[in-house]
Amino acid sequence: LKMDATDEEKIALFNLNITTPPMDEGELEKAPVVLIRHGLSMFNLKHLEAVHIHGKGSEGARAVETDTEGIDPGLHPIGIRQCEAHHDVINGIEWQVVFTSPMQRA
């Protein structure tokens, strides 16, 4: 991993999806609850990089996992792109009730 890797290089290296297919409309209508995960956070990318460099379960990866700055990270620019890519689909649904997390990445 190059220190100056572009977002596009990170997307390819870590096999990150910008878009995912929306839920089937029939399934969506039957679903009592729909959970929507946040886009890639600063912590998510930092952890992916640590595991890539140091290995899963390594001291380097563990240092990232226990870093208190990872408690409420914002979205990484890739995560913002993921959210923007799904904006129209999410806003096209007539939600009955919406609950959101107070976390930055939500």
UniProtKB/TrEMBL annotation:
Gene3D superfamilies: Phosphoglycerate mutase-like. This is Uncharacterized protein. It comes from Strombidium inclinatum.
